TrEMBL record:
NCBIfam families: formate-DH-gamm. This is Formate dehydrogenase, cytochrome b556(Fdo) subunit. PANTHER family: FORMATE DEHYDROGENASE, NITRATE-INDUCIBLE, CYTOCHROME B556 FDN SUBUNIT, FORMATE DEHYDROGENASE, NITRATE-INDUCIBLE, CYTOCHROME B556(FDN) SUBUNIT. Keywords: Cell membrane, Electron transport, Heme, Iron, Membrane, Metal-binding, Transmembrane, Transmembrane helix, Transport. Gene3D superfamilies: Transmembrane di-heme cytochromes, Chain C. GO terms for molecular function: electron transfer activity; formate dehydrogenase (NAD+) activity; formate dehydrogenase (quinone) activity; metal ion binding. Its cofactor is heme. It is found in: Cell membrane. Residues 29-201 form the Cytochrome b561 bacterial/Ni-hydrogenase domain. It is a multi-pass membrane protein. The chain crosses the membrane at residues 34-51, 71-91, 130-153, 165-191. One of its GO terms (cellular component) is plasma membrane.
Amino acid sequence: MSAPDRNGVRGEMRDKDGNPLIQRYTANDRSNHWITAICFVLLAVSGLAMFHPATSWMAVFLGGGQWTRILHPFLGVVMFVSFAVLVVRFWHHNKIDQADKQWMKQIGDVLNNREDRLPKIGMYNAGQKILFFVLIASMLGLLLSGIVIWRAYFAFYFPIDVVRFAALLHAFSAFVLICSIIVHIYAAFWVKGSIGAMVRGTVTYGWARKHHPRWFESVIKNKQRD
């Protein structure tokens, strides 16, 4: 079994059916993703525990109410830093281009899995790119508002009206983030093979050719050039 070359193709690596594999995500990419994901889950349940009495039982996941209030903001910082690394890593793959605009115009074909009618997609499609920017906006909203309402360290520096507005912004940003992650998870299950790519780091030639043909052609072209 050979190591992947710098273009992401594992020359000798194949799946159980003998299909050659392409590396889609490195070990560092996957580690970053799962650190962010774990932090998100812990932050979601702890945030909901502090948001309403009906969900206060969720504080048990972080050791009770006091530990939830202590750990929640620190976990938020860890999630933001981990996500920021992903943003830097994948920013250049998420620029909206002409093919993405056409993809959005053909949303009917997207929803009906008529991928043969769609323009050639790069590493990510327009829906994934839009979600990427929504996540960035949500994360920034959570970080900035979270700093303002972090009572132990920063809240006393701000007027009460600013703190109240920050609390509202924090709740709104969290709502948007949770909804976005639900869409992200649903899409990962919808496109079979997506979860495997983030677990193992590889996809088959057939998967890449079907769902992200422009990215596939680029990887193969670079491989042949070498």
